[in-house]
Amino acid sequence: MILFLIYVLIFVAAFFAVKTVASRNSNSDYGPLKTVTFGDESAVKPSRSASVISILSIFLLWAMFTGSVLLPNFLHVPGPFEGVGTFEYTTQAGSKLDTATVTVLVHPISSPEEAPPVDVGDGWAKNDSVAIGMWRSDLLRVDRNDEFGRSDGAEIIEINGFKVEPGDTIDVGWGTVTISDKGTPNIQPAKGWQMESIWLPAPEAVVKRVGEIANEGFRGSTLWEHLGYSLFRVIIGFFFGALVGIPLGYAMGLSNWFRGWFDPIVEFMRPVPPLALIPLVIIWAGIGETGKIILLFLAALWIMAIAARSGVSGVNISKVHAAYSLGASKSQIMRYVIVPNSLPEIFTGARVAMGVCWGTVVAAELVAAEQGAGMMIMVASKFQNTDIVIMGIILIGIIGFGIDMLMRWAERILVPWKGKG
Amino acid sequence: MSGLSIQSISMRFDLPNGESVQALQDVSIDLKAGELLSVLGPSGCGKTTLLNIVAGFIAPTAGRMMLNGHEIDGPDAERGMVFQQGALFEWMSVRENVGFGPSMKGMPKKNKVEIVDHLLDVVGLQDFKEKAVYELSGGMQQRVALARCLANDPDVILMDEPLGALDALTREKMQSLVLKLWKETGKTIILITHSVEEALLLGERLIVMAPRPGRIHKEYHLPFAEIGVGEDLRNVKKLIEFTERREEILGMIWDMEEEIMGRSEAVS
User: Fold this and answer.
1) How far apart are CA B41 and CA B47, in angstroms?
2) What number is the ipTM of this complex?
3) pTM value?
4) Span A205-414: which CATH code?
C-alpha cells in the first residue's frame, strides 16, 4: 500500500516537474501546433522523459525498500531494528511480586551472535537476555531462570509497567511484546518497511550475482550456456516449425484439397496453448532436447502455417490478374507475386511465433531441464536464491525483447513494402 | 481477320440463395484493330464483367470471342490490362514493374532495358525508375501501370476505370496521355469508365450499357478522340457538339438510374 502511494507520488511529482521544465524551454519546440490534442490519437507521443523517469523510479523504489547501498541512507524506508533493546516484566507468584529486565540483541541474520551476558540482578525474578535475528521473533521463557517459574504458579502481569493478560501486545519502543496464551512473552523487534533479502534482494546483490554466475556458472553450466541452450532450442524449434508451416500454409492457401484437409487440424491445434502439450511431449519424447524441440516446433508450426495461409489469401486478386495478363505462368505467379506478397504476413507470424517459442521454452524448462534459463530460476527458487530468480527474470525479459527487436529490424530490411500495397 | 470480335456473350451468376443474376445478355461488339472503344453505364450494368470476360479471367455462360482469328479462352499477354488501382507489385521498383512482362517471357536483358527505358520516357517517369512504386503519387502509379502494360506489346489494352481514383487535374493530364499513347502505338483499346466526359473525350466509339440484364443500349461514333489528339482537352469540352452529347448521355443514364430506383422501390 505504502509502495503504491509512493509510486503514485513519484508519478505525479515527475509529471509536474517535467511539465515545468518543458514549459520553460517551450521556445525550442517547433512541432506542429495542433490545438485539438485530446482525443486525437496521433497527437499522443510517448514522452521520453516519462519513460526514463518510469524506469528510474522502479529502480529507486526497489533500492528504497531493500536498503540498497546504491542509495544514500536518508532515502531508505525505515529498516528493521538493529542493536540492543530492553523491556521489564513484572511477575507474580501467589502474593509475591518482582520485576526483572530482558535485554534483547537484534543482529543481522548473516552474522549470528550469542545472547549478551547480563547480571541476573536481585530479587527472585532474574534478568534475561536473548539474541534475535532481524525480521525474526522469539518466544522467550523468561521464567526459566526465575526462582518461581510457571510451574510454581508465577504469571507475568505487567510489561514495562502496563498491565497485561495473555493475548495482549505491548509496544516497547523498539518492537512489540505479545503475551502468548500460556503466558510466555513473544518478542518481535520492529521489522521496518524494508524487504528481507530472501524476499527481495537489493539491486546490487542481483548485479553481483550476475557477475558470479557469469564467472563460475550455475549447476555445472555457465550463465551463457544456460541462456544459449534456451536460445538454441527456440531457434531450432522455430526453424523446423517455419520449414514445415510455411509450405503447409501456402498449400492451404492455394489448393481446395489441402485447405479442406488441414483446416480442421490447424484450427483445432491453434487455440491449444503449447504449454498444455508439455505433459504429452514429456511422456512421448522424455525431458531431453528432442522433447523440447518438438514442443517448440509445434508451437511455431500452426502460427507459421496460418500466417502463410493468410499471406496467400491476402493477395489482391487484381495483382494476380495483372500478372496473368502480362504473360506470367503459374510458377512465375508463385515466385514473383504470391511469395513476395505473403512475406509481410509471414514476418508478422514469425515475430509472434518467436515470442511464443521463447515463452514456451522457459515454461518447458521450468518443468524439467538440465540447462536453460527456466531451469536456472526454477532451481534457484527451490533454494530461496531470490537474487538468481530476479536475475533470471530480467535476463529472460531482455532476451525476449531483443528477439522482437531483431525480428522488427529484419522485417524493415527485408520487406520494406509491408503495409504499402 | 484482325481485330476483336465479341459474339453474343451472355453471363449469368448464380447466387447462393438460389436466385441468378443476368449480368450480360447477348452482347456483341466488333472492334477493328486500332479502335478505341469506351464503355459507359450505370453501376451494375456488367461493364466490368464484360472486361473480365475479354481479359479471360472468367468464361462467359454463352457466346464466344475471337481475337485476330483465334478464340479467347484465358488470360494472355496479347490482352494487357490496366486496373483502377492496387495492381502494381509493391515489392518491385518502377523499372522492375515495367519490365515484368518482358522478364516473364525471358526476353534478353539488353532488349528489356531498351523497352523499359523507352516507355519510362514516354510516360515521363525516367527520373523515378529506381523508386519503389509506393513512393509515387496515384497519377504516377497509373503511368507505371500503363507503361507496364505497353512493355508487353499487347494487341488489345483493356482499361478498367484506370483514372477513376485520380484527382481532377491529374485525371485530365492522364486522359491526354492515354490519347497520345493510343495514337502513337495504334493499339486497340477498350476503356471502361464511370465518367461521361471521359467516355466522350477518349472514345472513338462509345457504347452505353443498360443494366438488368446488362446489355448494349446505344452506340455512338465520336470525333472527339481524334480532335483531342492534337488539341487541349479543355477546348474539346467547350465544343457545342460535345456539351450536347454529354447532356444527352447524362440524361440517358439518369433515366436508367431512376428506373432502377423505381423498380427496387416497387419491389420493397
Assistant:
1) 7
2) 0.88
3) 0.81
4) 1.10.3720.10
